[in-house]
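Students often ask why we bother encoding 3D structure as a string. The short answer is that it lets us treat folding as translation between two languages. Here is a chain of 247 residues written in the first language.
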Amino acid sequence: MTEAEPASPSAPESVPPVSEAEAEAQMDIHKPKPVHSWRELASEIGVIVIGILIAIGLEQTVEQIHWSHQVSRAHAELATDMQQSNRAFAFRAAADGCVARRIDRLEAIIEQVARHEPVAPIRQVIPDIGNGLYHAAWQTSQAAQTLAHFDERELNLYGNYYIQVENVQRFIDLEGRDWNVLRVLQGDPARLGPGDVAALRVAIQQVRFENYIIAAIMREEMDTSRALGVQVPAADAARVREVCAVA
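And here it is in the second language, the structure alphabet:
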């Protein structure tokens, strides 16, 4: 019995040619219609313009939402920043009078030393008035260009607040330098000579001015903070009592 011969492959069926019209119909190509009048041309242009305006409007809306969110976030961060500095401002403003009395007392001791009068040993000269001020949130908002989207009035208030933070920090640094000069009074002031007395007289006048200007700026800062709706905490009563106890 002979094996069946393998069936030979059938010839491929011929594909009927497709006309150009049918090919265009299958590809769903829409040819632009010819414009027959100025009215039709204006209508076509109007559709294009309206589409562009809608796209621009949507883009602007998205951008406004973005910056609105950024401004709200900046407000919250600035408020946290300012509340930290406001604690220092409230304390220093409350302790202002006690610091001024200590300066007067030290000046009297300096003059006693100059007259070679007996003076009791001094245990502590420099009051606990050091404070940290904060401005990181302001710098971050500047770098992110968020401030450009603030209301003009509040931007001016924030700007004034943070300019004064920088100013008062400079005075605090100068004050620390001058208090370090006065530190030589600690212990037995009778050991000091005429050169020491001359330097102390200069330093005592400088710390008096610095104490005055620092307290004045800090009071203004608290007023600006309230105008912005940022809370000003009460002064640390225990710390104020400590400064006043040795005034």
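Translate back mentally: The radius of gyration is 40 Å. Keep this in mind for the problem set.
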